[in-house]
Design brief:
Chain lengths: 200, 527
């Protein structure tokens, strides 16, 4: 009886420990200063325009940055683009968080200023964004972050105008095959009628 | 009762009671073979096939079967082609959850009306033209998908593509001109099930096409548009095959169909009246909405669900979603078979219980699917849900032929419409707003299935009873089926077919009567 109870309690404790291993966003400190070139409200064209990013460590924070190994920079959805779109939902547990779905770059961490210029990829959807950087430890887990917007994600947001994906060649092909379908239908129909008339 | 030729049971002359229950063929004494006809299969006096030879393509009977079900399959493929690609399309067109939900509702709503129109078209032009016209005229709508650039356009195109689901009607109608009525139930059930498989196959085909096209260098937002050309081409190919290889009747093409005037024999108004005033019609329309209807709704949401909830790659989510629809290959015929099997021992009561059990099972596992947190559990629950729902579809059409003889066509049509309506309703309620997550939507859909299946307990046949009530010993099958005719019509002798049917349907009393196992003639000329 007592051993059973011990087993249950130890299982329960290990479960707790396991869940507490999951990194949450609220546990991260904003130790990185990140700036991006787009002005607030600017519209960038996917596939054409660039974003220039600069990041560095905020020196007001005490050290503890020895664990930082890499920095990954992501393009993240602003709240307005998450509305009514559950597949972009912000969740505190980082493994389940869907706010940042487009990776910009991953670079090794240096405490000095780093700059990177990125051309907005063609598969980036049209939406309102901000940029966030995560500092990763050697196990790839997030330990700190920095972002171009404030804590409420309302300031300094920019838009991306996506490509539509339509092409003139596709439009023409559509029209041709549609016409072929209708014309061949009518063709067969009238051929049938003509064949049928004398025998019936 | 005036008008019965000979004593009760005399029409069963020649039946030995040892014929197989589930009809893949009907033996000679029951339906005489026309020995002068030179067809691959034994035929009756109208040259309709008496045997169903699955792997043959012989002209005209089996060839018609294959042309018919493959056309229906193609339309299912194109109607649900967008579903597995929604994760890409929603980013391209900046869709919200309401847009996606509305498009899903639109995709199943169009066919409610187009199926009714198709019935008339089949009457006027014949099923071969009906099928070919619909398939080839809906090809442009599939190609239009590549032109869409907004949410409104997306909803509109999915609505238009959805019209093509009316090929169900032409499929069933065409087969009733080619197959004897004693085996038409099995033939139509198989064709319907295999056509429905298209909703599953598309979840597999479209992501694979998308991947291949992307590998050749297209951006994602162009690749999905190009992928839609393949279903479009399938429409054109099937339309041409139907026009060139198909024929309207076993003996050749049309014009004889007009002489037959099968539909004009009865008054449409009367037939409609008896369908609409039979309460069982509405119960089965509701029930079908929660077997077929939920199948269509799930076809629309399941791939996106697995992609989002379990973070799977697009083609893997597609494979899992495909198993849902592909279960139709066996599940739907199984439902019909289970219905027939239970009727052997328990009659109509057995059929009703079978239907209730299968459909409720589907509902329970839909609920569990919504609750499942791990991928293997979710897949397992989804598969059992699919078997339950699809077998329930088959079982529903095991009972519907007995609800009415005179109005069978319209009742089948109303049940079919109920299916699409149920699908639109569940998508609107549970999958169109951000009020519920998709997993919550599945849970509530499961609960709704269980609740909306309960009315089957209210279905009561005076001569056979219901799930809980025994039959009225004084009631007879003849009385039930003749009550659909007025006194004058009975005087005119219009009810003779119903009387014959009534005699055959005595097998629905179950083991109490040494029954003639051959199932009575099932689905009619048009559904």
């Amino acid at each position: 009886m007592a051993t059973n109870a011990c087993l249950v309690v130890s299982l329960w404790i290990s479960c707790l420990l396991a869940t507490s291993h999951a990194t949450t966003f609220s546990s991260l400190q904003r130790t990185i200063i990140l700036t991006a070139s787009p002005q607030a409200g600017q519209v960038l064209k996917a596939g054409e325009d660039n974003i220039t990013l600069t990041w560095s460590l905020n020196t007001t924070f005490p050290s503890g940055t020895d664990s930082y190994k890499d920095v990954t920079v992501e393009l993240c959805y602003a709240p307005i683009s998450q509305k009514d779109r559950g597949w972009r939902k912000t969740v505190d547990e980082l493994a389940k968080d869907k706010t940042c779905q487009h990776n910009i770059v991953k670079k090794p961490y240096t405490s000095s200023n780093t700059t990177f210029t990125w051309t907005v990829r063609k598969d980036v959807p049209g939406a309102t964004y901000f940029v966030r950087a995560y500092a990763l430890d050697s196990a790839g887990r997030e330990v700190a972050f920095g972002q171009t917007t404030d804590a409420h994600k309302t300031a300094n947001l920019f838009e991306v105008e996506a490509i539509i994906g339509r092409h003139v060649s596709l439009d023409i092909a559509s029209a041709c095959f549609s016409a072929f379908s209708i014309l061949s239908l009518l063709g067969f129909f009238f051929m049938d009628k003509r064949k049928g008339k004398p025998s019936k | 009762m005036a008008g019965i030729e000979g004593s009760p049971g005399s029409s069963m002359h020649g039946v030995t009671g040892r014929e197989p229950v589930h009809a893949f063929s009907v033996a000679s004494p029951i339906v005489p073979t026309d020995t002068t006809a030179k067809f691959d299969l034994p035929v009756d006096s109208e040259h309709k096939a008496k045997k169903f030879k699955l792997f043959s393509f012989a002209n005209p009977h089996m060839r018609t079967f294959h042309l018919s079900w493959i056309s229906f399959f193609t339309c299912f493929v194109s109607t649900f082609a967008a579903a597995p690609l929604v994760p890409i399309i929603r980013d391209n067109l900046n869709l919200t959850k309401s847009d996606i939900g509305n498009a899903g509702v639109a995709s199943v709503s169009g066919s409610i009306f187009s199926r009714l129109v198709m019935g008339a078209v089949c009457d006027l032009l014949g099923p071969r033209y009906g099928c070919a016209f619909l398939v080839m005229l809906s090809a442009p709508t599939v190609f239009c998908m590549s032109l869409v650039s907004s949410a409104g356009g997306y909803v509109a195109v999915r609505f238009m593509i959805g019209f093509s689901l009316a090929t169900f009607v032409s499929c069933q109608y065409w087969m009733s001109t080619m197959f004897n009525s004693k085996i038409i139930g099995t033939v139509n059930g198989t064709a319907a099930g295999w056509g429905n498989m298209g909703g599953g196959a598309t979840q597999l085909i479209m992501p694979v096409l998308y991947d291949i096209i992307k590998k050749t260098g297209s951006t994602p937002f162009t690749a999905w548009r190009i992928a839609f050309f393949i279903p479009g081409w399938l429409h054109i190919i099937m339309g041409i095959l139907v026009m060139t290889l198909g024929q309207d009747l076993p003996d050749g093409n049309r014009s004889a169909l007009q002489k037959k005037g099968n539909v004009a024999k009865d008054q449409f108004g009367k037939v409609l009246w008896y369908a609409v005033t039979n309460y069982r019609t509405w119960i089965f329309a509701l029930l079908y909405g929660y077997s077929m209807g939920v199948e269509l709704s799930t076809d629309n949401v399941i791939a996106e669900y697995f992609y989002d909830r379990f973070d799977l790659k697009l083609h893997l989510a597609g494979i899992i979603a495909a198993t849902f629809g592909m279960a139709n290959l066996l599940a739907r015929p199984f439902g019909g078979f289970a219905s027939d099997y239970s009727a052997r021992y328990f009659g109509m009561r057995g059929r009703l219980w079978t239907l209730w059990i299968l459909q409720t099972l589907g509902g329970v596992f839909c609920l569990l699917l919504g609750r499942a947190d791990s991928l293997p559990l979710a897949v397992a629950f989804m598969i059992i849900f699919s078997i339950g729902a699809q077998a329930a579809c088959g079982a529903t059409f095991g009972v519907i032929p007995f609800v009415s003889r005179r109005s069978l066509g319209i009742i089948s049509g109303l049940a079919g419409a109920g299916g699409n309506f149920g699908s639109g309703l569940t998508q609107l309620l549970f999958f169109s707003t951000s009020k519920y997550t998709t997993e919550e939507g599945l849970e509530y859909m499961g609960i709704m299935i269980i609740c909306c299946t309960l009315p089957v307990m209210l279905v009561h046949f005076p001569q056979w009873g219901s799930m809980f009530l025994p039959p009225n010993n004084k009631a007879s099958e003849e009385h039930y089926y003749t009550s659909e005719y007025t006194e004058e019509e009975v005087q005119k002798g219009m009810h003779h077919n119903s009387l014959k049917f009534a005699e055959n349907s005595r097998s629905e009393r179950g083991n109490r009567i040494a029954s003639a196992p051959t199932p009575p003639s099932a689905t009619p000329n048009y559904v």
